[in-house]
Amino acid sequence: MIFADASALIAIIIGEAEADALADRLEAASPRLCSAMSVWETVAGLCRSYTFSVPTARAHVRQFLDVGGFQFVGIAEPEFELATEAYAQFGKGRHPAALNMGNCFAYACAKSNQAKLLYKGEDFAKTDLG
User: Fold this and answer.
1) In the CATH hierarchy, which fold is given to the domain comprising 2-123?
2) Which stretches within 15-76 are classed as H helix?
3) pTM passes above 0.90
4) pLDDT-based confidence at residue 129 (cuts at 50, 70, 90)
5) Domain layout of the chain by residue ranges
6) Which among 2, 5, 89, 125 is placed 20 to 30 Å from 21, CA to CA?
7) Can you state the angle between helices 54-68 and 36-50, rounded to 10 degrees?
8) For residues 36, 39, 41 and 42, what is the CA-based torsion angle, rounded to 10 degrees?
């Protein structure tokens, strides 16, 4: 079981340098999880960094999720608690991992679903999920 952070989704969709390695990890895992927040961040990241329009980014992301057989997980009170704990322990300005809000919720979703976390970069590697 794996939860995909927006950083990994963007890297794979765009074909960044890490895309093949991330895609291999994703392909080897089942089920594949995401959340409304990680998907929203993916759309926003494609618009911000790659000049996609919102409808185009949303269509690319939706197609990627559908082909990949992703399941959306909910964000509710348990994820709120885990995300605030992640912020307290690993948050920006508090810890070298410097997790932002989206990172904290990706962390929480992975933890609450007992899933591995698929991500790009070094931020999560500095947490207990790394």
Assistant:
1) Rossmann fold (3.40.50)
2) 19-28, 36-50, 54-68
3) yes
4) confident
5) 2-123
6) 89
7) 130
8) 180
